[in-house]
Structure formats: structure tokens, C-alpha cells
Amino acid sequence: MNDPVRHLYVHLPFCAHRCGYCDFVTVVGRRGQHAAYVDGLLAELEHERELLAPELETVFLGGGTPTFTEPRELERLLAALPPAAEITVEANPETVTRKLAALLRRSGVNRVSLGAQTFQPKLLRMLERVAGPDDVRKSVYHLRDAGFDNISLDLIYGIPGQGPSDLAADIEGALALRPEHLSCYELEAKPGTRFAHAHGEELRRQAEAMEGYFESVVETLVAAGYRWYETANFCRAANLDSKSRDLRSRHNLAYWRGRDYLGLGIGAVSTVRGRRWRTTPRLALYLSALHEGRRPLRELEPLADSVQREERVMLGLRLDEPLPVAPVAASLDTDALARLERLGLARIDRFEPDHPGAAVTLTHRGRLLGDAVTADLLA
Amino acid sequence: MDLERIRNFSIIAHIDHGKSTLADRILELTKTVSGREMRAQVLDTMELERERGITIKAQAVRVNWRTDELNLIDTPGHVDFTYEVSRSLQACEGAVLVVDAAQGVEAQTVANAYLAIENNLEIVPVVNKIDLPQADPDGAAAELAELVGGKPEDVLRISAKTGEGVAEVLDAIVERIPPPSGDPAAPPRALVFDSSYDQYRGVVAFVRVVDGAFAAREPVRAMAQGTRFEAEEVGFFSPTMKAAETLDAGEVGYVITGLKDVSRLRVGDTLTSERNPAAEPLPGYKDVKPMVFAGLFPTDSDDYPDLRDALERLKLNDAALFYEPETSQALGFGFRCGFLGLLHMEIVRERLEREFDLDLLVTAPNVAYRVLERNGEWLEVHNPAEMPRELDAVEEPYVHASIIVPKGYVGPVMELNNDRRGRFDHMEYLSPERVLLSYELPLAEIVLDYYDQLKSRTRGYASFDYDVAGFREGELARVDIVIADEPVDALSMIVHRDAAYARGRALVERLKEEIPRQYFDVAVQAAIGSRVIARETVKAKRKDVLAKCYGGDITRKRKLLEKQKAGKRRMKQVGAVEVPQEAFLAVLNLNDGSKK
Q: For residue A313, what is the nearest residue in chain B, using CA coordinates?
């Protein structure tokens, strides 16, 4: 029960510019505060140290734009974090120079997740991204040159004005760079973002036309030899990798498998032993608390057993691996399961749901309709 | 009490013309309630009534004015309750007819005045709200005098709000309304003009004693139904319950019956003494027949027993409410309920939801049909799904409709009535500006959105009233809706043959919009018998998943999922298809094929 936490998320909120569609906790500019922030992170780490295993499975630096952080501060942070088997850093293409790639490599980072989003200049402008298509390519070359053999690209589809041929060109552009991993997200106009305000109506109008985009992303990538291992995530199949590696994101798998994780930094979320908390998103509050030797303010969310089971189902069904029924049986509607099986949306591995070895997997179509299927499946 | 010293009267008025305010002022002026006790509009007890400004249940209050005992019998204000109004009026010798000085006579005023005249009541005409800046007391008085066949100078002019002229109204009641007639020595007879249910004391009957006297602990019999009980207590309201030794001839009051079964004492029945029974009941008892029907289903099928209990309780206070169990393939177990009219239906629904905390799905209302079957027998059908497909003739109820409009709106109203299969009867000028239009209309054309249409086409100026004229043969067709090969009984409708195609098409188009996309294609069809007259397809959805879900998104994602789940719970399962409750109401606002 008191297993130490083996997955660490570190939030680096700084960005050169806030993109219109972004609803993450970000802080624009403030170069002067990067050092203070890293001090804060390291102080917070000390507060939580006893939760963590001495050696971690994964560390993930997300943002914001982690690679926008002052290189000296980024290096200091990476040096101070506990060792881990997988260390991922998110990067924006325009920040990845030859020098930065080398810095990451020598700091022990072994996986980079690159926010490419799209290769069409007009769509990049729509997203207010700073980088151009060539920046994406250049940054991949720099990373390869520095020795990175596990690179992930983020793509966004469903951008206002994006036609089917734009989508095909984007996927082609990404595949040409032979990434080990791809994350493909449909653009969401999240309430309250500038983007939702400016383009929400247009997105709703084109919703039906874009419904097929997700399907074609999945089909194209699977045809190109990628494993669709999570709703929005693809990795090069092990048999196609020169080293036969499992290229799934170990850090994100931890979320989807319901493992505990610790988050450091403003707005970061942790889930440990049935409790979830979110650290204050306000930079000044965060820094002053840690400066005074206190833990920063956090918003607590206790997770009842039933809620934990529901989350296990909700997250587990995003994966292409079977979800064991026994631990979540109390939250499953077996009638609905039988109905979904008849409709060809779910499969149960052992026919009797009570069987200790029984497990549910969603079919290809079931995964495309995953939210509705999950809502049906939960009792 | 000497009969000569008693006056029994009602106040009748169009909604908002000031009936309740006048009643309040009378209670104050006669010191029946002190200023401290005075709640605005004492007589309207139910929360619902307050909000809607209408009085659902009659009550009677005794007040003393100079040397006389006056009984004010409150009447429901709406046409749906004509029978209840008529029973209340039968308990009186006179009525104060109130008209708003700014609005003048309305369709409902006309209907109520005729009802009072039919019941041989002495009418005291009153123009109210003379304090309003836009008041036209002379105009309203002239219309009122014309209506009741009197002289404008006999019309009292008051402001119930300020109290001006209210004492004169009380004096006029004593002077103009005759005292009750009746024989104090004859075997006791009392008219039940209303009843109420108290959970501790059972059914409380409101009565007008005609002959003899009633006392507590006497055995009593209801003559029409044969129900027997012992009067636990008799008394009157002033304004709260006050027990009395006896209720004598001419008086108005209550009898606590101790009856637990609401259906055993109907409004209109005659009470008599078991020991000294009267030979004949009072005239006028009638088992009121509902004309408008709808299915009521609990949203959550577990609430079915609660709905049954609630209907039983409502029925106690509402002799006109009819219900019988109904099983719908689409909606499960519920009740087919019969109502006097649309307002009655609305009130019952709101009371079920508000007072009994039930979540209900109410199907589109329909009227009662009389069907001549192939075997030569007449059958009354309350549910379109039960309309036989093989039949010789169908009859539907018609109403006499009175519509009063400013003369500029006669055209649009005629057009509406023609669209609704109306038959023009006659038209008369009530004043140089206002016209009364009389039509015969099928009730079925009114139960959907007639009133809304009338209001919108006349910018709210029309006033409308109707009473049932009887059944007439009609060219009617039953249109069924089939969703994914599953006939949906709750969506069947009976429509005029000429409109069947357009209505079927419009309903199918509406359903296509209302039914969310499912895991598979869903065909929505309208059919007459086996002939499909319209078809649409709700395309299967291809994607329903949130792209991103990492450590910081889980709570938000879970909440969205819970919302999605709650949305599904509000759906009704029709075969394998999830149909939102709203879809069952789609038929309510179809506009003959043209989209709004």
C-alpha cells in the first residue's frame, strides 16, 4: 500500500508566447524568474522526497515550454532530479538548437517530445505557433545528431481551415521524420481560451466534416507500421524498431494504468494513495511559500474507491491492452458490456465476467467511440 | 341562523381582474382577519396558485357584515373547471362579476357570466381597478351592463387595491342577492361543492346545506355514490377552520368525513342523514368526463409506485382527474391520465413535480375519440396507440370557441381557425373596437399549440374560451412512428387525413434532430398502417472520444464522463436506441410541416 511513487512530473511553465488554444498553466517570459522557479522546484522536491523511490521509472518535464527555460537553470534542474529509466522533456521546435540538444543529452534525457502540431504555415499561424515547418525538421536533425533515438512528435488536427489534404500532408510530413512516437490530438476549443472565443463557432460548424479525421489518422499511422496503443498515441511497432524496443511512453502509461505519480511545480497534479492534489497555479504564491520553507498551497481531491475504479475503467479502456475486470467489477454494468459486445464495440476475454482472468478490450471502432462506450460500461 | 340573514355568493372574474384582491379586502373590511394575519390573497392556499395567479380549488369563508352572515365561495377561474365552477355557483344565490376597468369584458368573463345566469344567480356587476391611469370605467361598465342585461349605472365602480367602493359591494350583496331558500324542517340535504384531503382527518367536504341541519357524530350518506360515514366534525372557515354545533339550512361550511378513500365522495353529490334520509338528491350531479388525455411516465421507472400514490392523492382533491395504468413499449409503466383541458393537465403535472417531487415524462396530449368498430360497436379511445386500424368511423370532440379580439385582428384569427379546421359560426361587435368570434373547432386542434398561435398572431390581445360541443365524425388517420424498426407507441398520433403526410414528415424531421447519433444508423419512419409516408436516417457517430488525457486531465475528464453518463440516464431506451425525453414532446410543436 505504501509503495513509493516511481513517476515524477515536473512543470516548467515558461513560454515565449501563449498560444490561443492553450489552457495549460503557463507564464510568458519572466526570464529573471527562471532561477527562482528552479529553486522552488528543488525545494518542493525536498518536501515530497519521502514519497519517492530512490530510483524512479520515469521523469517527465512538461510545460509551458521546458526548453524555453534558461539553459543554465534547466541543466541545474536536470542534474538535481532523481535518476530514472525514462526521462522525457517536452520541447518546442524553435527552441531546439544544436547546443540545447547536447545539453539535454548530457543531462541524461533520453526521450524528447516535440510540439510540431502541423507542417502547414497557414495552420501554424492559426495556432499562433512561433515555429515554422522547417524549424520542426531542423530540431529533429539536431536531436538525432545529439544521439536521441526516441523522439515523439505532437500533431494537432481539426484546425479551422484544415482540409483533408492538409491532414494527409501533415501526417506525411511527420512520417518523413521517422519519429519513434506520435501523439495526435484533435484541437479542442476549451472554454475560456482565446481560441474558443475566436473560433468556437467555426469548430462546431466543421465538427461533422472533421469526424472522419480521427479515423484517417489512425488508419494512416497503423498502415505505416505504428501501434495505436492509446487513444491519441502511436509508437513504432517493436518489430519495426531496429532494437525491438517497446516505444510506448512509459510515463504516460503510468497514468493510464492508474499508477501513483507526483507532480512538482505550479498547477501540477499529483495522485498518491487515493488522494489527488493540484498545486497552486499562481507563481508568486508558489515561490513565496517555498521561499519561506512551507509547502505551496494545494487543492485537495480525495478519491473514493468507486471514483478510483471509474478512473481505472476510463483510463484503462484508452489502451489497446485488456483491462482486467476483477478489480473494477463493482463499477461495471455487465448488461451494457454484453450489449456493447453484440454491437462489436467491446470484447471480453473470458466469457464469464466473474472469472478472475476476465478482461475487457475495446475493438477498433469501440476505441473511436471510447467516451460513449465508457459511459455505457460504467454502472 | 335565520335564513333571511344569510347571503351566499361567489366572485367570478377573468384571471388577473382582481378577484383575489377583492376577497382579501372583504376579509379585512369585515374584520375576519386582522391586519397582522393578513397575508396577501388569503384564499389562494396553494403555492402553485400564487405563482400562476389562478385559483384551483374552491373554499368557502364566512364573514359578518353589519347584521348579516355572508359566505364567500371561491370558484376556480378557468374554463377547464366549468363543472367545478358550476357546483360552486349552485351553492350560491348570487355572484359578484368583476371586470378590469382597463381590460373590459374578456372571453372568460362571458363564459362565467353565462354560467352564473344559467344557475339563476343574481349578478352584482363590478368594475375594478378604477384607480389605474389607463382605466376606462365607463367603457367597461357599458360592456358589463350589456353582458348581464342591466343598466350601466347599476355597475359598481371600485378599487379592490385601495379599498374604494368595497363596502358598497358588501351592501349590494345584502340588498340585491336573495337569501337562500330551503326547508329547515325537511330531511337534511347538502350539496358537496368541493372537497379537500387532510392526511390526519381524511376527506373534508365543503357543503352548502339546503334543507335540515347536519351535526357532528351523525351518520351521513352520499346519495349518488351511496358512501356512508359518520360526520366527525362540522364547521365553517373564518378564515381558518372553526367547529360548530350544527350546519343549518342555507349555511355553507365543512364536514369532516374521516373517509380515507378519495374517490368515495364526489363533487356534486348530495349528503343526507342516514337516520332521516331525504327522498331525492339535489339535481345536477354528473360524472365529469375528461376530454384531454396524455401519458404520464416516471423518468425513473423505480418511481412508478410513488407516481401511483401521488395520483391517488391528487384525485382526492380533483374529482375530474382520471387515470389508468398504461404500459408503453417505449416508456415503460405509467398512467394514461384524463384531464378537463390543457390547463388542468399543466396544473396536475406541476403539482406532481412540485408537491410530490416526481420527475415526469408527459406525452403529447390527445383528445378522446369515439370509434365505430367493424363489429358495429362504439369504443372510446384515449390513446392514439390504441386506435384500431380497422374501423368504420371515427368521431372526435368539437368545442364552441369564443374569441374576443380588437377588430384589426379578425383576419389573422380567421386564418388560424381555417387552418385548424374551424367552422365559422358568427361574429358580433361587443363595442366599436372589439369583436367576438364564434367558431366550432375540433378539440384536437386546440390541445397542441393553438393558444400560443392565437396569442402570437394577435400580439397577445386575443382572449379565448371554449366549451365542449360534442362529438362529430372526422376524416382521421393514425400515424405511427417507427424508430429502428421498433414502433414507438408513445409517438403515435391521430391527425386529419389531409394533414397526415405533412405532420408525419414534420415529426420525422424533428425526431431526426432530437435523437442523438448512436453507435449505428437509425431509421426514423412515419407510417399509416404499413405504408411508410416519411423516412429519415440518424447517421451513426464515428468518433466520440476526448483526445488528450494525462495526469492533469483526469479529474476534468472524469467529470465530463459523469456528465455524459447523466445525459444517458435521461434517455429512454427504445429497442436499442437511446431517445431523449424531449423527443417525445416533439409532436407538441410541429407546425404543419413548416419549420419554426
A: B558
Cell of A3: 509503495
Summarize pLDDT for A26-75 with one digit per residue, the tens: 888 777 899 999 999 999 999 999 999 999 999 999 988 999 999 999 99
Cα A149 to Cα A105, A111, A129, A141, A204, distances in angstroms: 11, 8, 26, 11, 39
Q: Are strands A233-236 and A181-186 parallel, antiparallel or unpaired?
A: antiparallel
Structural domain boundaries, residue B24: 3-176
Cβ contacts (< 8 Å) between A314 and chain B: which residues?
554, 557-558, 561
Could you please state the CATH topology (level 3) that the domain comprising A305-377 is classified under: Arc Repressor Mutant, subunit A (1.10.10)
Give how many domains chain B has, as a whole number: 5
Of B543, B560, B576, the CB nearest to A368: B543
CB pairs below 8 Å between A and B: how many? 95
Output the average pLDDT for chain B. 86
Q: State whether residue A247 sits within 8 Å of chain B by CB.
A: no
A281-to-A47, A168, B301 alpha-carbon distances in Å? 18, 38, 45
Contact in structure between B116 and B12 (CB atoms under 8 Å)? yes
Say whether A41 sits in a helix, a strand or coil: helix
Q: What is the ipTM of this complex?
A: 0.92
Q: What is the CATH number of domain A7-256?
A: 3.80.30.20
For residue B246, is it within any domain? yes
Do B243 and B355 fall within a single domain?
Answer: no
Domains of chain A by residue range: 7-256, 305-377
Q: What integer pLDDT is reported at residue B57 of this predicted model?
A: 45
Q: Are B338 and B391 part of one and the same domain?
A: no
Query: CB-based contacts of B268: which residues, under 8 Å, 6+ apart?
Result: B83, B87, B191, B192, B193, B224, B284, B285, B286, B319
Pairwise CB contact (< 8 Å): B561 & A375 = yes
Q: How many residues does chain B have?
A: 596
Q: How distant, in Å, are the alpha carbons of A2, A227, B451, B590, B596 from that of B510?
A: 57, 42, 21, 8, 11
The DSSP code for B490 is G
Pick the residue from chain B with its C-alpha nearest to A9.
B551
B160 CB-contact burial (10 Å; exposed 0-12 / middle 13-18 / buried 19+): buried
Cis peptide before A64 (omega within 30 of 0): yes
Q: What's this model's pTM, rounded to 2 decimal places?
A: 0.67
* Inter-chain touch A231–B547, beta carbons under 8 Å: yes
Confidence band of B49 (pLDDT split at 50, 70, 90): very low
The 10s digit of each residue's pLDDT in A333-370 is 988 999 999 999 999 887 666 777 889 999 999 999 99
